[in-house]
């Protein structure tokens, strides 16, 4: 299978490196820069070396060890899209991708809280290590479509996830948790079960991550048996991050309507392509001819906008503390 040339490689030389990044300038717990991972996941072939279960979830995710043509080996999570629809209440690639994009509003690359991910379609031959009997995900295609996400290193799933006493005494923990909570509020995250929310094992750099964001953006039903993070739970938010949120304009909101687009090649294998105009803003997964498009619906985007307005109103009135 021949992939399209990478459109992201030119970004690698201009990656922003903040003082909060790891010693090698990468986001903490990432094996390489998000821009390079985005390019690899979306555009490059890989060979599956190892397949394991990815935990106790119900969506059939796998932990893979994969190798690229340049010899680079990575650990990733693979989650196949729901067959036929490519969308589901507990497995929604379009919502995962939208959450990944929304974090860009709040933080720079080296402070990402959602693991780097991208859609990818494997030929049925390439897919055999995962399932030798699988069929193509979508009609008129010849590949298994899924989402590849980076597997984070050196993280744990604490129970309980949030430590209020630590928030009060540890400025770095408070910083990361406050930004994390703002993100989960914006995406209306409603699946706070253990394993979906992770904490770095480095006590000196306690990053927090949302690694499963499929139940979000006004979901129905949702996981009501666990503490969810669709509301602000921390005592205060960071002023700097809130000010970044104020700069979110109509163009950024509208961009959530198309978070990924793929086109089937002559052999029926979907390839990631440049995002085009929204085909139908009333539905989240759109298929036209040999293209498939993922994004939030118009109603879901409006709900994000309302959540922003509501939060900023509380900040401006003093009801939502910021520091």
Task: Please give a structural write-up.
- The protein has helices at about 35-45, 95-105, 165-170, 170-185, 240-245, 250-255, 300-315; strands at about 45-55, 60-65, 75-80, 115-125, 145-150, 155, 195-200, 210, 260-265, 270, 285-290, 290-295.
- α2 (about 95-105) packs across α4.
- The radius of gyration is 19 Å and the shape is globular.
- It is α+β, with helices and mostly antiparallel strands and about 325 residues long.
- The chain has one domain (about 10-315).
- The model is unreliable at about 1-25 (pLDDT under 50).
- A hairpin with a 2-residue loop joins β11 (about 285-290) and β12.
- The protein is built from 7 helices and 12 strands.
Number of helices: 7
Helical fraction: 25-40%
Distance between the termini: 51 Å
Give the tally of structural domains.
1
Write down the overall mean pLDDT. 90
Number of strands: 12
Please identify the structural class as seen in this structure. alpha+beta
Instruction: Give the strand order of the largest sheet, numbering strands 1, 2, ... along the chain.
Output: 1-2-3-5-4
- Strand content is 15-25%
So what's the overall shape?
A: globular
Question: What is the chain-wise order of helices and strands?
Answer: HEEEHEEEHHEEHHEEEEH
Question: Uncertain segments of ≥5 residues (pLDDT<50)?
Answer: 1-23
């Amino acid at each position: 299978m021949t992939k399209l040339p990478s459109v992201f490689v030119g970004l690698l030389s201009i990656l922003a490196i903040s003082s909060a990044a790891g010693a090698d300038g990468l986001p903490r717990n990432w094996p390489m820069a998000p821009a390079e991972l985005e390019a690899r996941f979306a555009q490059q072939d890989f060979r599956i070396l190892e397949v394991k279960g990815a935990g106790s979830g119900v969506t059939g995710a796998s932990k893979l060890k994969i190798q690229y043509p340049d010899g680079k080996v990575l650990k990733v999570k693979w989650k196949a899209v729901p067959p036929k629809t490519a969308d589901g209440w507990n497995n929604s690639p379009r919502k995962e991708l939208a959450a990944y994009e929304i974090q860009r509003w709040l933080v720079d690359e080296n402070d990402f809280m959602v693991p780097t991910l991208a859609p990818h379609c494997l030929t049925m031959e390439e897919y055999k290590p995962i399932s030798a009997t699988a069929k193509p995900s979508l009609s008129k295609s010849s590949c298994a479509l899924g989402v590849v996400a980076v597997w984070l290193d050196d993280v744990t799933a604490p129970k309980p996830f949030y430590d209020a006493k630590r928030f009060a005494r540890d400025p770095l923990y408070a910083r990361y948790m406050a930004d994390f909570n703002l993100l989960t509020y914006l995406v209306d995250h409603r699946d706070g079960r253990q394993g979906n929310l992770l904490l770095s094992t480095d006590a000196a750099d306690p990053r927090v991550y949302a690694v499963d964001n499929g139940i979000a953006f006004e979901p129905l039903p949702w996981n009501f048996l666990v503490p969810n993070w669709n509301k602000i739970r921390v005592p205060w938010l960071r002023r700097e991050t809130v000010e970044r949120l104020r700069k979110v304009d109509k163009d950024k909101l509208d961009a959530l309507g198309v978070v990924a687009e793929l086109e089937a090649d002559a052999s029926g294998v979907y390839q990631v392509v440049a995002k085009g105009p929204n085909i139908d803003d009333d539905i989240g997964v759109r298929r036209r001819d040999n293209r498939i498009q993922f994004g939030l619906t118009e109603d879901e985007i409006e709900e994000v906008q309302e959540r922003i307005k509501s939060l900023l109103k509380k900040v401006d009135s003093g009801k939502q503390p910021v520091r």
